[in-house]
Amino acid sequence: MKASEMEYRLKFFLDNGFQRKECKVCKTPFWTLDRTREDCADIPCSDYHFLDMKEGSLNWSVSESRKKFLEFFRKRGHEIIPPKPVLARWREDLYLTIASIVDFQPYITSGLVPPPANPLVISQPCIRMDDVDNVGITFGRHLTTFEMGGHHAFNYPDKFVYWKDETVSYAKEFFTKELGISEDLLNFKESWWEGGGNAGPSFEVTVGGLELATLVFMQYEISAGDYVPLKLKIVDTGYGIERIAWFTQKTPTAFHAIYGNLVDTFFDKLGQPRVDSELLRVASRFAGRIDPDNISTLVEHRNLVAKALGIPVDVVKDELNRAARIFQVLDHTKTVALMLGDGLVPSSSGEGYLGRLLIRRALRTLKFLGTDVKLSELVKLQINFWGYDFPQLLRNRDYILDVVDVEQEKFQELISKTSSLSEFLSKSKRSIGLEDLVELYDSNGIPPDIIADELRKKGIQIEVPHNFYSIVAKRHQVAPLKKDKDTLKLPEHIINEVKDIRATEALYYKDQYARSFDATVLLSKSKYLVLDRTLFYPEGGGQLGDQGWIILNGDRVRVVDTQKVGDIVVHILDREINLEKGMRIEGEIDWERRFRLMRHHTATHVVLAAAKKLLGDHVWQAGAEKTPQKARLDITHYKPLTAEEIRKIEDMANSVINDRRPVRPFEINRVEAEMKYGVSIYEGGVPNKANIRLLEIEGWDVESCGGTHVWNTGDIGAIKIVKTEKIQDGIIRLEYVAGDMVSRYARELEDKLVNVSSKLETSSDQLEMKVEKLLREHQEAKNLIAYYRKEALELLSRSIQERSINGIRLIILPQIKDQELEKELMRRLTSQSKTLVVHITQTNGELRVDLGTSRDIDVKGVVERLKEMGGKGGGRGTFGSMVVANKSREEIIDYIKETIERGGL
């Protein structure tokens, strides 16, 4: 969409003498005080002239730039808001925090809830993977991680804060007074912005070729491709904190401004000579001319740099390519540290996929640099460098470094398979396109350029897109929409019929220990019943819907399930009834079942908090289910749990139960909840409400939850973890029982012990001694069998007769019932060249033919011959196995002899 000129014709510009011009290069309108300016002072229309400016030479670090920005707006009435994690876990549509406005979408920007302050200012660490392949190549224009300084104002119909003129005025004041940039160097380039489902006109603030900020005036919601005016008018600005630091330092590249002496440390650590700073400075000055999607511009850039410095273009190319790889490792290791520090667990899906992609891209770059430095050593440098700015890096240091080491080990295992994979591809694929490369990466995880190198050795040329990782990242950066599970068990006609009924009064929240109630019928259709109020909890949050009875004049009708449509509870009965609207009925829940569900649901909160406290902040609920019999919890974790860890989680959970801690549900404004407790309250999902229901276990856990729970942890009774397993990469499942189900589980184990003891003819208390005795006897028997097997092998080896046919040693073994002996004998006999060993045994009225050959004979010839006589089975290489019916042993042997005589091997 393109906004009208009037959206940009501000009173501020007209009052202060700014002129609207059109850039002679890109034809984009911009506002400036410089009467002589002909371009918009943005790349590629202008080179990075700011590197040669004296203005703004303040030598601010990233930390200082952040502090100056926040303090400037604090003094002007903006409240400083702490940043959110780089993992957007308060959003169900995004994995990563890509901009500061993401912190406030969609609930604040839609007007559902008020902002934490108005106006406010924030410096939000962001991660964008869209241009990951361009990092380093453009000397800092592209980064995967950056800080967005945003000052935001939320204008309501009845409350105006400030809008366009004030926003532009703030920008002018910040850049002129704080950075000392002359007014006539400031340019406001007209633009349009879209993101996170919102849109609006914007200005890009450019100076000397560098865009320092974007001023967005969010006034539309994008719905089904249409631009719908928002109720709110939102000031959404993005100041580049790293770019401000670069502008004030004027270092050869943005990486030098961001990382300081860490740049040289990385060059040294990776065993690479440092690149000449003047070469980098000239390369950066012309970097705006590089369009990474157009390779020819990169060639032109290298030629331009070579000409400016009077050195060979090949030297320029090699040096800048080498520098780009160091810069990539710098950028990626910081991003990886931030991702892991905020709790990401590498995996093959979701946010974990993006984290693993970046780790493997960094490892691939290290491989190309020919270094054996561990990636974790480089990540440790980033933790030490950024720990003051981002305390979560220091807090989670051990986890971060351990995960990186684990991922590097997995990567090395993958690389070891590259040769065999390329061998397979060279035989099975005539051509390999982009979709093949993406599928190979998703299924195998091996970087495509490494596979391409192996295939080139085999004479197969494949083209790997220069932006391959960006393509893959874009496909995985948006979370799939979750289906509404509330209505899946209800027929569509019932959903349509009940959706306009008033919300059901949730008695199950008012008294979770109540068992019976009375209510009025609002709708009765077939076996579906809606009441004005109910104690029956509808399925949700991983908890099954209640069961029980509806009582009508002494007649008890079974409620087999409870579901919901929005805020309307639907009772599903075991038979059809037709009740009149307005009729009074009684209801009674199945208390024993409900109490078990309450215990298991509360136990889930206890176990999750125990796992987080023991394993680390990276533990996140990936799924849960509570039934009357047991509960399960899926958590994010990067390796299987040890027996000791399981025991500790169980002990911690039972300690909380013994403490008899109060369990308190309460409602709170979602913004207040996030500010007070953090986004970890969304472990079980993100509710779409202004006020959310939290469950607090005193001194242990606070989490958003709509389920039913016990009032005190002591009511859980006890918790026993009965099973743990890795269900997919990065996800561990715990299954456990609580309350009286613990004794039932113990009883089942006891029954198994009694049963085993009976079979071993001993008592339960003597079972361990009996098993130890049996194990000793079993080992003695194994040793004896091994001795007899060795003796038999020697005897058989000496007594076996062989015959030579066409230079082939044919050996027919006698019938051997010991399969291990047969295998060992075949291995020994086929160690000599030109040997075929045949073993024929009777099995269920058929003859089984096992074939073994030396390495210089392929068993396929004999297998195919036996198939001709009706055999079933197969084989390749040095082993085959067939089943032949209706043939005698002698016929099969003659067939094999004939095959050898004909030269069939």
From TrEMBL:
Pfam families referenced in this protein's UniProt entry, alphabetically: DHHA1, tRNA-synt_2c, tRNA_SAD
Entry EC number(s): 6.1.1.7
Binding positions for Zn(2+) per the UniProt entry: H601, H605, C705, H709
Annotated GO biological process: alanyl-tRNA aminoacylation
InterPro entries reported for this sequence: aa-tRNA-synth_II/BPL/LPL, Ala-tRNA-lgiase_IIc, Ala-tRNA-ligase_IIc_anticod-bd, Ala-tRNA-synth_IIc_core, Ala-tRNA-synth_IIc_N, Ala-tRNA_lgiase_arc, Ala-tRNA_ligase, DHHA1_dom
Compartments reported by the entry: Cytoplasm
Alphabetical keyword list: Aminoacyl-tRNA synthetase, ATP-binding, Coiled coil, Cytoplasm, Ligase, Metal-binding, Nucleotide-binding, Protein biosynthesis, RNA-binding, tRNA-binding, Zinc
Family matches, as HAMAP family: Ala_tRNA_synth_A (MF_00036_A)
Record comment regarding domains: Consists of three domains; the N-terminal catalytic domain, the editing domain and the C-terminal C-Ala domain. The editing domain removes incorrectly charged amino acids, while the C-Ala domain, along with tRNA(Ala), serves as a bridge to cooperatively bring together the editing and aminoacylation centers thus stimulating deacylation of misacylated tRNAs.
Name of the protein in its database record: Alanine--tRNA ligase
Provenance organism: Metallosphaera yellowstonensis MK1
